[in-house]
């Protein structure tokens, strides 16, 4: 009897519109993901949008705007866990971040629909599709652009192998030459090896010129007691 008493045709029609808007727009976003053979395709994205819309709509019907606000917080955190499920780590590569972000945005779009904001839901869906479609050529353009080493922030390491009797003198000379060339040292360590000692100087994250480091390493390699000297770089975190 309570179910019959709670039936309201106007509210039911309002819910129907909200859910319909959410699933249609979610399907449109998911169609682009499905076309590109991503992990979360049409059905997943549509259901995420539909679920977010239903939760927000239910919260509004039970407690008004306050209920919708409370539900939104749980929807955001819940969709975050769902999005984490599509992120995969393959060796040094991470896949699925864009798909996870799309799921998150689809939930926001569904929340707009559930909160009786269909125009905002349409706008959100349009922006998601634009981000996944029209930004793709820009990403490819940036990735193909040659890297300017002087503008790249990286961590550089200078490695010098020396005999044990000269380790202290070589370490001090390394520090002197690097600091004289305006390359501050972040950390320095010594690795004992069978025949010699390797001194590794880690420079602070900065931009550097290859020819300058080549010249410094060449000067260090000419020092008495040094058997080998080189430098390498890696992208800073």
From TrEMBL:
Protein name: Protein MgtC
Annotated family: Belongs to the MgtC/SapB family.
Localization of this protein: Cell inner membrane; Cell membrane
Broad class of the protein's primary localization: membrane
Function, in words: Virulence factor required for growth in low Mg(2+) medium and for intramacrophage survival. May be involved in regulating membrane potential by activating Na(+)/K(+)-ATPase.
Record-linked InterPro entries: MgtC-like_C, MgtC/SapB/SrpB/YhiD_fam, MgtC_SapB_SrpB_YhiD_N
Top-rank taxon, per record: Bacteria
Keywords: Cell inner membrane, Cell membrane, Membrane, Transmembrane, Transmembrane helix
Domain MgtC/SapB/SrpB/YhiD N-terminal: 19-139
Pfam families from the UniProt entry: MgtC, MgtC_SapB_C
Keyword Transcription regulation among record annotations: no
Membrane topology qualifier: Multi-pass membrane protein
Lineage, uppermost ranks: Bacteria, Pseudomonadati, Pseudomonadota, Alphaproteobacteria, Hyphomicrobiales
Residues spanning the membrane: 12-31, 40-59, 71-88
MgtC-like C-terminal domain sequence ranges: 156-231
């Amino acid at each position: 009897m309570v179910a019959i008493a709670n039936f309201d045709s106007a509210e039911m029609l309002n819910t129907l519109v909200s859910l319909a808007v959410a699933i249609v727009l979610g399907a449109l976003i998911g169609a682009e993901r499905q076309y590109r053979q991503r992990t979360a395709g049409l059905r997943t994205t549509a259901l995420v949008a539909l679920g977010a819309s239903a939760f927000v709509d239910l919260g509004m019907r039970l407690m008004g705007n306050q209920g919708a606000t409370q539900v939104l917080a749980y929807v955001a955190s819940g969709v975050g866990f769902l999005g984490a499920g599509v992120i995969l780590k393959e060796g040094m590569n991470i896949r699925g971040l864009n798909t996870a972000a799309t799921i998150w945005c689809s939930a926001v779009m569904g929340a707009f629909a559930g909160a009786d904001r269909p125009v905002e839901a349409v706008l959100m869906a349009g922006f998601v599709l634009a981000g996944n479609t029209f930004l793709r050529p820009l990403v490819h353009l940036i990735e193909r652009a040659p890297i300017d080493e002087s503008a790249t922030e990286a961590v550089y390491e200078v490695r010098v192998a020396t005999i044990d009797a000269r380790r202290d003198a070589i370490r001090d000379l390394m520090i002197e030459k690097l600091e004289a060339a305006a390359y501050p040292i972040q950390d320095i360590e010594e690795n004992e090896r069978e025949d010699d000692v390797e001194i590794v100087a880690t420079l602070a994250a900065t931009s550097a010129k290859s020819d300058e480091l080549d010249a410094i390493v060449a000067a260090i390699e000419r020092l008495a007691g040094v058997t080998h000297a080189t430098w390498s770089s890696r992208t800073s975190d």
